[in-house]
Target: BLUF domain-containing protein
Amino acid sequence: MPLNHTNRIMKWDDIDDSALVQLVYVSTLTLGSRLSTSIFDEVEGHARNYNQQHNITGTLCYGNGHFLQCIEGKKSDVFNLQERIFVDSRHKNVEVLLLQVINHRSFADWRMRLLFLERWLWSPATKKQAVQLSPFLPFAPHGWSSDRTEQFLQIIKTFDSPPHIKAAGITYNALGNMVRHIAAPHQAFLIIQGFLSILLVVALILLYL
Model:
């Protein structure tokens, strides 16, 4: 279905001080952050603590080296959080996809949850449930239109619901759980090591020819 490329990026000065706002931005992890063993725990833990104190809700998605974060709350609280996030040296290429006034929160029960959008790590149940996400994977959210961003958020809302709703969240297979906690932060390092290993094998072959 063709997407309507409506621009919904308001200016902060045009938003009433008492308004409830939604900010969605994307960014790319720096190489140093990808090599960190604790980057995801740090980001998720800090976000939950800060957001609970300032009544901010939303979701944080990661995949293919990219973050997409949706932040909802009072104008002043979201603006102050944006100022903190955008100067964080752990990521780069920050781009705002949505900034709009909303009547109600889309993630009212989410203080901040980190969802890994690495399809190869998912359990069979999640792969079946996530068929609607196929058009958005591999995850590369930079340059998304406002409407495409909205469509993505509507789908993501179904993946992790409040306890009183029987809905399966994103789950991972055994390999996925291991990689998510151990290997995922080192993906750049592992790729480089794999490439160097291939070069070493080629060099040895040429040496003995």
